[in-house]
Hints:
This protein has 332 residues and is an alpha/beta fold. It has helices spanning 16-36, 61-74, 103-106, 108-113, 125-134, 181-187, 197-207, 243-252, 271-283, 292-295, 318-328, and strands spanning 48-52, 79-83, 94-95, 119-121, 139-143, 155-161, 190-194, 215-222, 233-238, 256-262, 287-290, 307-308, 311-315. Transfers the gamma-phosphate of ATP to the 4'-position of a tetraacyldisaccharide 1-phosphate intermediate (termed DS-1-P) to form tetraacyldisaccharide 1,4'-bis-phosphate (lipid IVA).
Amino acid sequence: xxxxxxxxxxxxxxxxxxxxxxxxxxxxxxxxxxxxxxxxxxxxxxxxxxxxxxxxxxxxxxxxxxxxxxxxxxxxxxxxxxxxxxxxxxxxxxxxxxxxxxxxxxxxxxxxxxxxxxxxxxxxxxxxxxxxxxxxxxxxxxxxxxxxxxxxxxxxxxxxxxxxxxxxxxxxxxxxxxxxxxxxxxxxxxxxxxxxxxxxxxxxxxxxxxxxxxxxxxxxxxxxxxxxxxxxxxxxxxxxxxxxxxxxxxxxxxxxxxxxxxxxxxxxxxxxxxxxxxxxxxxxxxxxxxxxxxxxxxxxxxxxxxxxxxxxxxxxxxxxxxxxxxxxxxxx
Length: 332
C-alpha cells in the first residue's frame, strides 16, 4: 500500500486523523505484544542476528542485511539469510535459486540477497532457521523478524530511516509503527539510522531522548558502475517503501529526471506496465531507470531494457559495528 501522508507528521502534532485512529493503533500494538509474549522461540544451534524495524515499510533493511552478511563472511563466517519471502507464493522452507525462482515465487528481496549469501524463505521462520543451520550456516541473518518470536535472537538491530524517523510516533493505522518506540527499543541491542548528515541531526533532535542503546549511523551511496549520470535524461520508477528517496539519489547524481513514477512497495511489474514506461522513455530520448529490488520483479524478457541504480550501505564506524556482530556471533 501507499504510505499515508499523515504518518509522516511530527510526533508532537500528529494531526486529527492520527487521533481519530489512535484506538485502532492501540489494538494493533496489543496484538503485537501478545504475539511477542509467546516466548523466545527456537534456538537453532547457531547465532541469530536479526535485522528489523519498528516501522511498516522500507527503512533500509535489505542494504543492511547485505552489509551484515558481507561483514560476517569477511570475518570467516558462513552466513545464511532467512526471510519470510514477502510477496512470494512459496511458503518454504525453500532455498532461493535465482536461476529457478522468480520474485513472484520467493519475493524480490530474497532474490536480491541471494547474490550475496544462501537465502531461505519460510513463512515459519523457525523452520527456515532450522533448515539454514542444517545446511551449514555458522550464523543466521534473520531478515525482518523483529516482531516475530519464532526464533531466539542473539543480536537485534533496529533500522530506521533518519529522515522519516518513526513518523508521527503512532501505531498502525494511526501511524507507521508496528509497536510503540519505547517497547521496541527495550528489546533491541542497537539502532542503525540511515541518512545523510542533515537527516541524522533531525533524527537525533526528534528521537534522541528515547535512545538509550548503541546508535550507529550509515548512508546509502550509489555503487560505482562507470555510469556518468550527470545530464543524463532519465525516466525513473520505483516500487519500494519510499520511492522519492530513490528519485532524490538520481537528482543528486546530476540526472535530469523528465518524469518519475512511484509504485506501491513490492507492486508486480506487468509486461504491459514496463512496455508503457519503455515506450515513454524512448519517445523522450531517456533511460528507463529503477532500483535493484525492482529489477528482480521485472519480466525476464524486459530485464535488460531497464537500467538499475544499485546502492550500498556505508557505515560510519564499520569496525565498531563489526565487533558487535562478532561478539554476538563468535567464530566457531
